[in-house]
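Quick question about two entries, pasted in order.
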Amino acid sequence: MPLVVFGGISTDVDAVLFDKDGTLFDAVALWKELGRERLRLIALSGAAPGAVSLAAKAMGFEPETGVADRSGPLALATWRDEAIAVATGLYLAGFPWTRARRIAVEAYERAEREIDISRVTALLPGVAGSLRSLANAGVVTAVVTTDSRERSQRMLECAGIRDLVKAIVGSEDFSRSKPDPEPLLKACTILGVSPERCAYVGDSPSDMIAAANAGMCVRAAVLTGTGDAGSLAPLSSVVLESVAGIRPATDTRPATGTRRTTTARPAATTRPAAGG
């Protein structure tokens, strides 16, 4: 199989798997749109301002500024898990649990249908070039994300890179989210490859722990999302500025997007409580 360069290290792999938000796409605009639309729909359901405020806190989102907590549910959880967190906020505001859960789930389902994904799809610099270079060299790639498969596909199509990715694994496809290895192992099954012959690229500690728990040979962290070098380096094989630092060895152009590299470490098995 082709030799793939990850910043300062290179290895032959059968597939490279990528996280989506914060790795391939700028997540900030998406989080802002999702957070505000979901809260708007919750307010339309009859929730008073105080209840909406508690829902926003449970979501990990500040609606006035549009800023999401990068360690919160909006940034890291599947929409179903996030809806349960928001329902808990509504319950604490005084709603009976069954009604709180119904309001949250209905708001999230409606937001999925109504958001114009083309307005919030922003591919990070260098991503298209790296994916195309990998595809031209015969390297199989896939996207593994806590977002829905349907929305992920629409975002890839809007960005013009759907044809470069062989498979998409989204929240519909697994029952346990990252850092559990199930989503990554599902992708390996779809692609017909061994996890030990795969690399996973992500922007959060939960991404790196999931890759370690799956037994992947390369855990490549990028600094374009929720994690920083201090939190990612101990869990990763290599830390890169961005996906632009990944290319097949046959691509002799100077690498971009490389910030720092680390020596590959043994697989981390510690699992934090939060998903990602």
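Here is the second entry:
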Amino acid sequence: MLKKGLVMVLSIILITIIAGCGTFVGSGGTSNGSGSTADQAKPTQLTKIKVSIPSASVETTDLYVAEKEGYFADAGLDVEQVTASSGPELLASLTGGSVQFANMGSTTLIQAVMKGMPLQGVSVTSDGVPYYLTISSKWAKAKGITVNSSPEQVAAAMKGARVGITQPGSSTDILLRVFLGNYNVSVDKDLTELSVGDANACVAALANDRVDAFVMWAPAPQLAAAEDGAIAWNLNQVPEFSGMLFANYVTTQKYIQENPGVVQKFTNALAKAAQFTLQHPDDAFNIVKQTMPDIDPTQLKFGFDDHLALMKDGITPSSQAYEKALKVYEFVNKGPVNVTLEQAFYLNATK
């Protein structure tokens, strides 16, 4: 009887030991051989966040790569992308609390901070302007404009034109005013500026002869070039725009204070995505193609390559690039803008 009792006790202990070990086998595998220590370390419950972007664009390649390559999931984040047609709409979604982060131009961020909005950039994606002045084939032919025309020639050709933007106060509006103003062409006096809407609306407006040109990010200009024979003139050819800090991810100061860990995880994932894109551009482009399957790959590649040339090796804003962004906005503001780099950016997240 004692022997049977001892056997039963030892059996229970053995079962308990096996159960306690779970599926662990060796030093990193699982009972079915498909797991790893890294897999087991992944967060089981993801933090949900929303990121507002200005429509599908090569400008947000890092966002697509971070999602596809699993950098967000590895960081414990479940990221949902929502679209807004312009900088003001991006600001509204951010300050209204419907999203936690937004991708916007530095001029929009500086303008918001100057007005007292409690916002800060947390990651930089490019130094240089990833926008184009897209000119209809009809207007370009009449004015003798090509993709190789000088900034002076293009600015002069815009006199009398109908130029589409997303809406007043947006990056499309600001860039147009700064570019033309530097060559003594007034948006208010020398041409007609029209609020058209998002990228798709701009392409349609050009095709339907409602505008002679529009300002927009890729791939809309390349799509117009394919459909209409339009000239997609790269605004980064303007000296004032070359090398300026431009595209950023932004959040509210309140969100930074309440969720510093989430902010850091988000920026770390973006940094990994940027590094992946620079090291594996072909793989990154394939991800972009999957994200925008309706765009002709040849035209999409033009926009992607231009974006790649502007990408930073890292996500930290440089003081030199920020100073160029300040000068651009000072032109629009018609006076000094007292917004420091530290006020505009939460630099702890970019290190």
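Reply: The chain is about 50% helix and 15% strand. Confidence is low (pLDDT under 50) at residues 1-40. Hope that helps.
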